[in-house]
Design goal:
Elements: E1 12-13, E2 19-21, E3 30-33, E4 39-42, E5 51-56, E6 65-68, E7 75-84, E8 92-97, E9 103-106, E10 118-123, E11 128-137, E12 145-146
Parallel strand pairs: 1-3, 2-4, 3-5, 4-6, 7-11
Antiparallel strand pairs: 5-10, 6-9, 7-8, 9-12, 10-11
Amino acid sequence: QGQVAPGMHREVISGVGATRTLLAKESGALCLLDRAAGVIYTLPTPVLGMQFEFLATVAVTSNAYKIITSASSIFLIGSVMGGSLTVADSGDVFQGNGTTHVAVTMAGSTTGGLIGTRFRVTAISDTQWVIDGGYVGSGTLADPFATS
């Protein structure tokens, strides 16, 4: 009881301050969005199969939670589902187009960043990360994907 078996646990990255550049050797980590004043995580250069997961454990109240690629020529492809805490029958799907989207930005309201927001990114080439997951927001939901 209370033991961790070698190879049976995963790294959890937390309390990183305002910005954090992830390292290739941290692939597989759960990266917490745990700072009300926002956190910007920069992904490393993608290597096929590399993967990171992000989870909001604190609602962002200023600035934003942001996940951004390491270069303007590395893109996000895939989709995320958004759900609103304040709008009945909410639910929208937003799509990373794989050719211009380099970031997901969540400001704590319509674009997400509230507790329970969760994404996974997986490198599928040296120029694309596939993203999936969902965000928790409030109000009428908006697209969290960005070109910068």
